[in-house]
Amino acid sequence: MAKKELKPIQKELLRLFKEVVPLFEKNGIEYFACGGTMIGAVREKGFIPWDDDIDLFMTRPNYDKLMDIARKNNGKIGEFDVACGEINNSLLPFCKIFDKRYKLNAKGVEGDEDYLFLDIFPLDAVPDDENERKEFFDEIEKKRKIVAISRLTYKGLFDVTKNKIIFPVKAIIKFKNQLLGKDKKLLEEYLEFCKKYPFESGKCYWGNTWGKIFDVDVTKDDVKTLKKPFEDTKINVMKGYDKYLTAVFGDYMKRPEESEQDAHEIKIIKEEK
């Protein structure tokens, strides 16, 4: 079987991943793949052919370790920049690790994808009770939409607004939030709400800050890590990967039709010397 040819962005993402993981391990931080990266590990033994990013999960205790390191090191882990609302250098409700040696062609809806990056999402506890969990998720969705107005670029906000008639209202709210300095306060309140339930005493978990809610019981046993082949290395996935992937993607072992392949079309446009 011929070796799969990686896109240039995938080659550099793989290189970045292999440079960052030893920094995690050195600091006792556990991670595992999520989203399309987890599908890639399970189904493709590497990148989904059309994918051009890497998404990782960390349980809240591990994510907090990363945040602590970034705070103590001027927003860095090793030589790489860490951006997140929780270290007050971004309006992101999750974390990006940037390699600023490689400039990209697109800012994305968040407006901060100028450089090669890995996305990292925290896993937080959710209520055990079904009704309480529904109320919690409903409130997260409301707060997420409010925070998104401030966080997204105007173009990103326009792109994600299905009813274009209400876009001017959102744009005015965004402008006022920035003018009055409310955007950071709204983000702080959102993040605090997402981690309302202590991780240590929780029985079920979800990526609350991610913004996509699926009512599935991801348990403490599910978030134990397994290693899977990923291109020429290995990547951690959660033990309960089938439960998670089925809830989010359905039949994840079947490749979607070409028209449904969700590529971001992110490309490297410049290598910084």
Q: Tell me the number of strands.
A: 11
Count helical runs.
8
Poorly predicted parts = none
Rg over alpha carbons: 18 Å
Properties at a glance:
273 residues, alpha+beta, Beta Polymerase, domain 2, two-stranded antiparallel sheet, 8 helices, 39% helix, globular
Describe the protein's architecture and organization.
- The chain is α+β, with helices and mostly antiparallel strands and 273 residues long.
- The protein has helices at 8-26, 35-44, 60-72, 130-151, 154-160, 167-180, 182-194, 241-249; strands spanning 32-33, 55-59, 76-77, 80-83, 95-104, 115-126, 204-206, 218-219, 225-230, 233-238, 268-271.
- α4 (130-151) runs antiparallel to α7 (182-194).
- The protein starts with 7 loop residues before the first helix and ends with a strand.
- The mean pLDDT is 88.
